[in-house]
Amino acid sequence: MPSKFIHKEDCVEDGLSIGIRQTRSGKYWWQARIYWKQQRKYDWHSLKLEYRDNKDNLIEARRKARKVYKSFIDRVMLNLHPKQDLTVERVVGDFLAEAEGLAGSNEANIQKGLEPRFKLVGKGTKPITLTRFLEIDQLTKTYVQPYFEDNSLWTRNIRTIQQRELVGYANWINQTRFLSEYGREIQVSPSRINKGITVIRLIWEYSMRKGFVDWVPNIDRPDANLEKRSRKVLDEPTYFKIVKQARLDSEKEINHEYHRDLSEQFYIWIKFLSWSGVRPSSGWTDRTLLRWSDIEIINEGTDSELWFINRTEKTQDFGDDPAKYIIQKPVIPDLKRLKLLYKERGISDPEFIFCHTKNGARGAAQGEVIKSFRRQWENLLTQIGIPNPKHAPQSERLSPYSIRGFYITMRLRYGKMNIDQIASACNTSAAMVRRIYRDWDIEQETESLTKGIPNYDESRQRRESANVI
């Protein structure tokens, strides 16, 4: 049983007094006593200050008591319990828990054929998906929580944090060393910094809705600078080298059956990207994995047979129909051959277009998705004499995503589609095609640029000749 509170003095603040209590060690420690009018009872709070019988010690006790009293009143005015935890750590935890719950409710509604309607924050936002929750959770743990911890904000009362303590977020990101899952140092892109800023604002919007704060921070966002961040251009000679080398590798006599299968799958994967223009999956987001069930075949078995693939990608809003890409004829025989390969390996009904044909290394089981061909891609580039420089920015590295840019450029150049058409066909924006993807080469476009231009001088000469005659 705690020792008796020994009253020392009443403070100027209404209902606040200070006193001391004796601990089991025999020492006395200061406490604040606050009368809670609404509940008609007292609340005691340790001031974490040992009692000394001198004026300076008393002044320090008064200062600490006023700080406790202010925190108490702040919570009571917000209709919160006086001891409710308002640290950033607790608020972020509650924010993520509510986000996950709302996302789960939306997914459940969709399964029942109902409209998703639960939003994380107020007007102008869309219902939250599980995918969006997972993105927010990952951004919080990787880029937001470390910022709060490094700047001594994580255990602070969120009500005490000021705008000036948040505006340095972008600079902190740029000065902090981040590593990829493979231990390689990475540079955080401006778009990801902006996403981190959005998460911080969401946390504050959530807190404002709960009544914890009455403002939302305005944090300077870095320029995305998409032109400078464009991917390295995959030109035609390099593309043909890549395809040729992948084909040669797939035709090599390899003793190990699994590696022989993997080599052929890699070649088909390159062709599939080349003749569909889909965004390559990173392998970590379930909805973007390539599945056989996403393929739609029209007029199967006829001369007018057409193949399409339906994709749910990052540009899709919640509830939108999947984007539809055409799978062009040059790769269709390869996909049919891939199905036969799986049948030969005893995989009767594979879920994924690219899956392990055997129980592989690192615990991969037969039939499981091949998450990435990253190692095969890097080895291939080395084989053809253009290895990616280590730690180079994406503008200096060829990635599988470059094949998508190549596909779009070729459709513009040889398919004679216009920018709006190819943007629609590839589930992107015309602005993005102009800013990132299009490899405009005026020499190669000369024929298109000059087609249909009348020769005014020649027409004028004919008229003049007719007048002479």
Structure, described:
The chain is α+β, with helices and mostly antiparallel strands and 469 residues long. The protein has three domains: 6-77; 88-210, no CATH class; 236-396, Orthogonal Bundle (hpI Integrase, Chain A). The chain is built from 14 helices and nine strands. Strands 1-2-3-4 form a four-stranded antiparallel sheet, with helices on one face. Helix 11 crosses helix 12 (430-437). It is elongated and about 95 Å long.
How is this fold's topology laid out?
Elements: E1 6-10, E2 16-22, E3 28-36, E4 41-50, H1 55-77, H2 88-111, H3 130-150, H4 169-175, E5 178-179, E6 185-186, H5 190-210, H6 236-251, H7 257-274, E7 295-298, E8 306-311, E9 323-327, H8 332-344, H9 374-383, H10 401-413, H11 419-425, H12 430-437, H13 446-450, H14 456-468
Antiparallel strand pairs: 1-2, 2-3, 3-4, 5-6, 7-8, 8-9
In short:
With 469 residues, the chain is of the alpha+beta class. The chain has helices at residues 55-77, 88-111, 130-150, 169-175, 190-210, 236-251, 257-274, 332-344, 374-383, 401-413, 419-425, 430-437, 446-450, 456-468; strands spanning 6-10, 16-22, 28-36, 41-50, 178-179, 185-186, 295-298, 306-311, 323-327.
Name a few traits of the molecule:
469 residues, alpha+beta, hpI Integrase, Chain A, four-stranded antiparallel beta sheet, elongated
- Which structural class do the helices and strands define? alpha+beta
Order of helices and strands: EEEEHHHHEEHHHEEEHHHHHHH
Main sheet: strand order: 1-2-3-4
**Helical percent range?**
40-55%
Rg over alpha carbons: 32 Å
Can you tell me the residue ranges where pLDDT is under 50 for at least 5 consecutive residues? Answer: 458-469
CATH class of the largest domain: Mainly Alpha
- Tell the overall outline: elongated
**What amount of the residues lies in strands?**
5-15%
Could you tell me the CATH topology label of the largest domain: hpI Integrase, Chain A
